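Final paragraph of the annual report: two paired records, presented back to back.
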Amino acid sequence: MWNWTMRTWTSPAKLRLKGIIGMNRRNIRYIGRYNNRRLYPLVDDKLKTKLLAQEYGITSPALIGTVATQFGVKHLNDILRGHAGFVIKPAKGSGGKGILVIDRVENDAFVKPSGARLTLQDVERHASNILSGLYSLGGSPDVAVVEALINFDERLAEYTYEGVPDIRVIVFLGYPVMAMMRLSTAASDGKANLHQGAVGVGLDIATGTAIRGVQFDRTRLDHPDTGHELASLHIPDWHTLLLLAAGCYEMTGLGYLGTDVVLDRDHGPMLLELNARPGLAIQMANGEGLRRRLDLIERQPSGVSPEERVAFAQHHFARRSELEASAGSIAEAV
């Protein structure tokens, strides 16, 4: 197996030594053991997740409306009227597929963050495709969810390109164990998806500061489009964000969970969506495996409050930034 960080070949034994977990262990040891399948619909369906979050008092982007039938597509303009910006997404989509972001409406044109202009017919066609299951898991019929546009926290504007970055936090038995920020790029078409070319930045659980950056499995010190260095990245309202993520354990009952959070300028951290089968690229972004952290959490008693769980994680999983060390080495070489 090729190790992009060291530019050398590595072995499964070396990966195990670093605590890296693979798909099989994730599926059997953690997802299979701690995630009851009957609870999956709570997170696989974004509309159900949003309604559940409202019930538990967890902040999420406001729901403007839904379209559940092809007949309803013709009334989409009535739902959108009066909203300067909005997001249309499939309730059962995955991997960022099928998400349409409209930054503003000018006259009769719907303008995307890239500046591309769509007609009402384009937007209706997109909603119709969502209903037909074009973007849903397994191609099953779906529902188009219309959400209010996130008022992006401008303190992070230099770290992203034509898109809103999000923070993925892996929560195990209610403890936030590892986190990364996903920064959209031109390669990812403004979407915060690592497989499409977004930059992943590992975050120190203790402070919310950047540890390490990667793009296409290669170490990255700056954003490829804005040119801004990543070492100075620090997530505002970090403690509040961790409490929100930790609270999703009680909300869903799922023991191994990926929480995706965005930062709103007015409302702070907001829950975007949840994932019962979160990917493992977060280990690459952090330069560290999950196994040691998960093993430690399994030894902790049950019945601990979210506040105590967050404090435990911040104490035990603190990390030093590798970005600062790398930037210093480069500066010395120059």
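The closing record of the year follows.
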Amino acid sequence: MADLDLFQIRLGYTFHSLALLRQALTHASAVAEPNGPREHNQRLEFLGDAVLQLSLSGALYAAHPMFDEGALTKTRARLVNEAALADRARELGLGGHLMLSRGEMTNGGRDRASILADAFEALLGAIYLDGGFEAVQAFVLREFAEGLADFESDPAADNPKGELQELLQARSPEPIEYRLLSASGPDHDRVFECAVWHGGMELGQGRGRSKKVAETAAARAALTRERA
């Protein structure tokens, strides 16, 4: 089975036009390569940003009738910032399918947050053109289900990962990295331990019943350290 076949299984969406999928995965740098592709993903990124905003806006509007415009806007912004979109791309393994120039590959482009976030939005644009709004909306709601659930009651709820991201990005554009240190216990009672890294340094560790909870605990530990 071809790589793109496996990738589409992971996406939970099968393209009618593989050309659209390939374009979504093509960074602008690849076009300049000898015998490189002719089209890159920036136009699809523009389109994907719009359908992402609409899909999440509709979901938040329906789920939270008591939230005012400011609360809805703040919640949506947390879901669609560069770091959050890059995380979604990493979960899908999108980086491994990107078409990049040799220079970008050498410089770690496959895991660069800006490239991953842009490619994720381009993927949404491609799904929209290939299958229509209902198809891309279903994909968005599936991908962001966990994030949407985090704001069930209060858009200003404790968000240490987001706070840490804002704090560190004010100093350096280098992305934050969460590393899984260990996973122990039986399947029904797993305990995860994660660490958060930035700028080549470990900033904090955390434990939890899921990887996400452990990452949140690590971010909280890092914030405590940064504010000390």
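The CA atoms of residues 69 and 191 lie 38 Å apart. This concludes the annual technical report; the extension proposal builds directly on these records.
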